[in-house]
Amino acid sequence: SVERILDPRLRERVVSAEHAASLIQPGETVAMSGFTGSGYPKAVPQCLAQRIEQAHARGEEFRINLLTGASTAPELDGALAKVDGIAMRMPFQSDPDARKRINAGKLDYLDIHLSHVAQHVWFGFYNEIDTAVVEVSAIHADGSLVPSTSVGNNKTWLDLAKKVIIEVNAWQPLGMDGMHDVYYGTALPPHRKPIPLVRGDDRIGQTTLRCDPDKIAAVVLTHAPDRNSPFNPPDADSQRIAGHLIEFLKHEVARGRLPANLLPLQSGVGNIPNAVLAGLASSGFRDLEAFTEVIQDGMLELLRTGVLRYASCTGFALSPVATEEFMRNIDFYRQRIIMRSQEVSNHPELVRRLGCIGMNGMIEADIYGNINSTHVMGSSIMNGIGGSGDFARNGFLSVFLSPSTAKNGSISSIVPMVSHVDHTEHDVAVVVTEQGLADLRGLPPRARARTLIANCVHPDFRDQLSDYFERACRDSYGKHTPHLLPEALSWHQRWLDTGTMKA
Ligand code: 0RQ
């Protein structure tokens, strides 16, 4: 509602979503807010999709290049993909309609480390930003913008866009004001200075976003929820994976390699990370810290019970039940949650300094510990690398988690050679499946393979993979990282040809 806009100049710019969408022209590069289904604009993208559909019906060309923080929701990615309104998408998506078009070769997709996005746009590696469409929860009298449930790249979009459309979403709790920490000190090389954050809960910036009011072409009022998908309770495999990892972390504490309250946790989203968080809740850990991208249900629960001291993030991925809890106790969570720009939440400098424990999902790993996080059968994108690389390369420990098989057991998640590489063997310390955990630290390639095959591979595939490895050790051209090149990707081809990787 209009009461959330305290700046009289901006109150005067309130228009309908249809009008705001009419300001976006064919061929524009449009940068929108949104990170894992939170804080994305709810109205303008849908009106833009209608406009595009009408233009296409008249035989006119109308597509945009679309930039965001990370994934959004059906009202944004879905609506624009369905009308074939996106020419180029970056840096992350997880939408079924967008994915279908990307994998049909009809939509260009740039899958980029999330910490890289803002700086690459500043460096001029991409088109100039014509329009920014950013959701906020309120506007102060001085025109400063109170972010909503994600910060993502909004600082950069608002600084660089030629014109700006703001959506003020009255569904977002007003109590979020004060939760954000927007750091304006990230200069460009050669003028960069260290980011002055030494503990994960330090506040180094300001609570609001700034934007030149002269650039704000339209303000739209909305009242609509974030994506808020329900969570399933962790299944048996997820619980086993979580169990192996937690046992390992306890062992690391006992060996003196980790402090009793561990180190700041980064966790991907989904069933397995949620099971890990639930496992941590019941394992006697106290005073944990989270320096991560996304807060999901499990982390909120850890905060509520005091197991987690604070969480630093750039967005949320909450179920409807957790959203209700968050809104009800917003004053409690505002003391314990710090929302940052994704260039800070995922910054390699900070992830290295803090010593984060990165825990991410994967599609497949190979016997040497190279990880494919993104491509099914080497060519079909699932989501994207997201922030997993920012944490895997730079963290204290880099853990990858997955069930040992996929697609009803027809696919082994541990293969001779990955069909696409996102995280090289050099960035991978620990791999966990429901079968067990492979600690690859300090191991040379052949020992990594033996450990992975013994601990992580499903029994249906273990003999087949051992056989490959032993023959590779005997017949490979080189014996450092043995491979049989004509066979290395044959498991994937067999699945494409016959529907199973089993020989
Ligand atoms: O596809 O639903 O069509 O059957 O991949 O797999 O098992 O539901 O697991 O939801 O945890 O996703 C790597 C995709 C895992 C995710 C990935 C198929 C499987 C299913 C999903 P269907 P599951 P998850 C923080 C960090 C990269 C980004 C990241 C991801 C679908 O973790 O996107 O880490 N990671 N971000 O069937 C063929 C295999 C497969 C396979 C799984 N080996 N072969 N298909 N699948 N393994 C968040 C952000 O950065 C924003």
Return the average pLDDT rounded to an integer.
Answer: 97
Instruction: Give the N-terminus to C-terminus distance in angstroms.
Output: 62 Å
Radius of gyration equals 23 Å
Multimer state: single chain
Overall structural class, as computed from helix and strand content, comes to alpha/beta
As a percent range, the share of helical residues equals 25-40%
**What about the largest sheet?**
8 strands, mixed
User: What coarse outline follows from CA principal-axis ratios?
Assistant: globular
Bound molecules: ligand 0RQ
Alpha plus pi helix count: 19
Low-confidence stretches: none
Approximately how much beta-strand content do the residues carry? 15-25%
Would you report the number of β strands? Answer: 26
What order do the helices and strands come in, and which of them pair?
Layout: H1 8-11, H2 17-21, E1 29-32, H3 44-57, E2 64-67, H4 74-82, E3 86-90, H5 96-103, E4 108-109, H6 117-123, E5 131-139, E6 145-147, H7 154-160, E7 163-169, E8 180-181, E9 216-222, H8 236-254, E10 265-267, H9 271-281, E11 288-291, E12 294-296, H10 297-304, E13 308-313, E14 315-317, H11 320-328, H12 330-334, E15 337-340, H13 342-345, H14 348-354, E16 357-361, E17 364-366, E18 371-372, E19 375-376, E20 380-381, H15 388-394, E21 397-401, E22 405-406, E23 411-412, E24 414-415, E25 430-433, E26 436-439, H16 445-456, H17 459-475, H18 485-488, H19 490-498
